[in-house]
Amino acid sequence: MAKNPQRPAEQPRDKAGASVVVWLLLGLVVLFGGLYVAAHYIAGDKVPRNTTVSGVRIGGHPQGEAAQRLQAGLADKVARDIATTIEGTAVAIDPAAAGLQVDYEASVAEAGGETSWDPVRLWNYFTGGDTFEAEVTLDDATYRAYLAGLDQQHGTPARDGAVAFAGNRVERTEPRTGKALDPADTLAALRAAFLEDAPGEVALEMADVVPAIDEGDVQEALDGFASPAVAAPVTLGFEGSTIKLSPADYTAALTLVPTQGELVPTLDAAKLAEVVGSKVTTGAPVDATVTLVGGRPQVVPAKPGVTFDPAELEAGFLDVVAKPQGERTLTLTAKVAQPEFTTKEARALKVTEQVSTFTTYFPYAEYRNVNIGRAAEIIDGTLLKPGETFSLNDTVGERTVENGFTKGYVISDGILIQDLGGGVSQMATTLFNAMFFAGLEDVEHKPHSFYIDRYPIGREATVAWGAVDLRFANDTPYGVLIDTNVTPSTPSSSGVVTVTMYSTKYWDITTSTGERYNLTKPETRRIDDLKCHPNEGFGGFDIDVVRYFKPVNGNTETREDEVFHTTYIPSDTVICTNPDAVDE
Predict the structure, then answer these.
(1) What residues does 468 pair with on adjacent strands?
(2) C-beta separation of 535 from 570 below 8 A
(3) What is the pLDDT of residue 410?
(4) Contact 341, 335 (CB under 8 A)
(5) Among the listed residues 425, 269, 238, 412, the one whose alpha carbon sits nearest the alpha carbon of residue 337
(6) Residue 441 or 110, more confident
(7) pLDDT for the residue 527
(8) Pick from 336, 334, 326, 312: which is nearest to 234 by CA?
(9) What is the pLDDT of residue 136?
């Protein structure tokens, strides 16, 4: 049997052939890979060779260099004004001032100037290149502002129609169509001419600007609100009473505000509440009182207090003011509070005539002007009803800087020292004498510790906060009105204090003053104090003053004579021994 040829012996040749193919392929890969890398190295981030941007050749250059070449090539175009006409007027527009600029880097990138391994990108570098327009950017805020300036110079602003009130009249403002450059059309025209090689004159057209509030809106506001608002008064009802508001009263609180193409009625609630408050006494009631008018006492009538809800007034007023005549009433929930002291009660006090007056004088000192004047200001107009007691300390209050007082001389331990409210005793003495001759009851008074010769001897009073008071009661059946008046002192004239009381005369008062007795001599005191006040002393004594009561005007009462006994201590001579003492 014949044997087959040994085919396995051919396998080494097959393997060798396959290896050649593999190596051949690898060689080709390496070759083309090297060529590809070389192509990338040559192209890099360069712009394709035949590229132009807005007429400037930038091909074959790296991105940064291409951007610089583009900027240099467009410099003249970017810097030149754009020639335009607006409504027939020549206007040169600076592109930069209008917000137009060129983004050179973006323009180069758009033209293909970027690093890439994309084979298409590499192929385009060697074989491609195209014509592009530069990337133009816009600063919108700058453009809008520039356009507004052009509109202001060459256009006409639109005017909204308006309706306003002037007292009981309606004032109408007619709307007007304006003229302005259309932002989109103007921008498109400027962009087109910005980088042209030989741009012609650009005609910028004005467009109509329609007002937001037109004639129809104005007429609607007139018919629906403004004309009815001034056609007739508005009546406000307050639980049994009414008040009428004329258009001239309330139109200051009304406005028609342009809102989304309409004139919307708007109410100033605070102004309206103020108007209503002027027609009624809002809040707490006001008691009746008595005051001087032209030098004669007169009753000031009481006023009831009316309270209402301003929100309720605000909620209903705009509706009622636009209604036709006969339907213009707004009823409010209100409360009426009566005064505690009525006009009838004030008249029953019968404060009709002057029943006493007394005047004292004081030497010049600014602290006296301040303190006496402030006390008089507070006391003036006090109305003392029958049975009531007046207290100077309660009425005037503590003598403090905050209460309007300053430092002055007062008597303490028989000598003069400085303290707040010095001089108020001048008012106390004057007030005491007016009370004395009005026939009122002396409840509490204290004379000065030593006699002061500008005061009536035995008929004077001092006060000190928290320690010594002047109090007197109105024990007559009539009211008593206290009037005070102060004329300040000057370096060349004395000050004057007058207290006058008004009522119906109930007593005819006379008085007598006895002789001085129990005379005492002053001592000499040496004081080592920086604030020592020297004094030339004088003696002390006792004195008696009698007040006599004679009933008048139908008064059937009888009253015993009233004796006022006063002991004045000596006013010591004061010698200041401290060489640095300051007599303030």
Answers:
(1) 464
(2) no
(3) 55
(4) no
(5) 238
(6) 441
(7) 81
(8) 326
(9) 93
Strand (E) or helix (H) holding 535: none
Over the range 139-157, which residues count as b (16 or more CB within 10 Å of their CB) and which as e?
eeeebeebbeebbeebbee
User: Cα separation of 302 and 342, whole Å?
Assistant: 6
The token pair at 169 is 């009249």
State if pTM tops 0.70. no
Burial of 312 (0-12, 13-18, 19+ CB in 10 A): middle
Residue appearing with tokens 């032209």: 294
Domain architecture of the chain: domains with CATH: 52-154 (no CATH), 231-346 (3.10.20), 350-576 (no CATH)
| Contact (CB, 8 A) for 295 and 352 | no
Nearest to 479 by CA among 281, 324, 300, 304: 300
Instruction: Read off the tokens for 547.
Output: 């007040």
Helices 119-127 and 11-43 pack at an angle, to 10 degrees, of 60
| Residue written as token pair 């360069």 | 46
Closest to 461 in 3D by CA, of 489, 496, 433: 433
Q: What pLDDT was estimated at residue 12? A: 58
How far apart (Å, rounded) are the C-alpha atoms in residues 564 and 555? 24
Tokens of 436: 């004395």
